[in-house]
């Protein structure tokens, strides 16, 4: 009998999850899965979750929440044989979309019993784990405002982005990969990622491969306001590589000097990092549950 621990974030995505827990319990009973639950509190969840995992010894730990909840679970099981399941219930659900995990609750639940497991690369960002996307600049500022606000959900994120856009000033960054400076200048945002897209489906890394042992650094340089609709269009049609304002580098390690100590976020959570930030790929360090693809 397999053992699954479900980590439920009661506030993510502004969605009520009381009934979901009952559905999960019934589903596991039908499928002869031994089940336990951990409800996040927002306080010391990583420590408490690790204790729970030690005591219960699950084969799979499934996050029922948004990117922050997925990241919490990943931190607790990284470099271990335990696999990560995802039932998306957040505002953005970025990693689950990138991995092709169904966004519908019942379908995502079904994946837990009909799946394959893939080991994906993750990133070490100055000693902190990133499983999806770390960025600095405009998006990180929006993420910070979003986290400070009372309202969750994708609408709130889009509203904050619109409010912040007009007044945003690009900042200076220096990027070094493999000991060479590859960029030194101002940028609207810099993203460091293994994945293809944000939870909003804005695609910054269309050819990114999540288990190729490399990550990408995406740079969006300052652009005239008149070009913003064109850039938005390119972001949502997988054609951002056609923009004259973007660059991308693939590498295994990098250092970014964030001269202005501009806002930075990792997997949907604002972080306070020093001016010099070091990035290292951790190849195949996280086992994730993926849907079985029909041939
Ligand atoms: N019981 C709780 N009360 C208040 N905050 C909580 C609680 N449990 C978790 N949190 C907070 O929820 C945040 C993570 O939310 P999560 O990212 O999963 O959902 P989301 O923000 O709605 O969606 P997404 O990240 O996909 O946009 C963390 O900041 C965490 O501290």
UniProtKB/TrEMBL annotation:
InterPro entries: ATP-NAD_kinase_N (IPR017438), Diacylglycerol_kinase_cat_dom (IPR001206), Lipid_Phosphate_FormReg (IPR050187), NAD/diacylglycerol_kinase_sf (IPR016064), YegS/DAGK_C (IPR045540)
Superkingdom of origin organism: Bacteria
SUPFAM superfamilies on file: NAD kinase/diacylglycerol kinase-like (SSF111331)
A cellular component term, taken from the record's GO annotations: plasma membrane
Keyword Kinase attached: yes
Keywords: ATP-binding, Kinase, Nucleotide-binding, Transferase
Stated name of the protein: DAGKc domain-containing protein
């Amino acid at each position: 009998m397999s053992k699954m621990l479900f980590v439920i974030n009661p506030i993510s995505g502004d969605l009520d999850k009381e009934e979901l827990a009952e559905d999960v319990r019934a589903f596991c009973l039908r499928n002869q899965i031994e089940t336990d639950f951990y409800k996040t509190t927002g306080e010391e969840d990583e420590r408490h979750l690790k204790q729970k995992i030690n005591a219960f010894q699950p084969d799979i730990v499934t996050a029922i929440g948004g990117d922050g909840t997925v990241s919490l679970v990943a931190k607790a099981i990284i470099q271990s044989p335990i696999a990560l399941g995802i039932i998306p219930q957040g505002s953005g659900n970025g990693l689950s979309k990138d991995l092709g995990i169904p966004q519908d609750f019942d379908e995502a639940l079904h994946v837990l019993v009909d799946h394959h497991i893939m080991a994906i690369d993750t990133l070490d960002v100055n000693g902190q784990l990133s499983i999806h996307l770390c960025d600095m600049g405009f998006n990180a500022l929006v993420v910070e405002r979003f986290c400070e606000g009372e309202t969750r959900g994708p609408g709130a994120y889009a509203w904050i982005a619109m409010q912040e856009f007009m007044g945003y000033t690009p900042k200076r960054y220096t990027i070094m990969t493999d000991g060479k400076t590859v960029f030194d200048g101002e940028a609207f945002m810099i993203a460091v990622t293994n994945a293809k897209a944000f939870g909003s489906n804005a695609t910054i890394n269309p050819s990114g491969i999540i288990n190729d042992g490399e990550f990408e650094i995406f740079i969006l340089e300052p652009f005239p306001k008149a070009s913003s609709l064109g850039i938005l269009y390119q972001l949502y049609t997988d054609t951002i590589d056609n923009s004259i304002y973007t660059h991308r580098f693939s590498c295994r390690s990098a250092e970014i000097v964030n001269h202005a100590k501009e806002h930075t976020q990792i997997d949907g959570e604002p972080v306070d990092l020093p001016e010099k930030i070091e990035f290292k790929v951790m190849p195949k360090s996280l086992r994730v549950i993926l849907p079985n693809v029909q041939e």
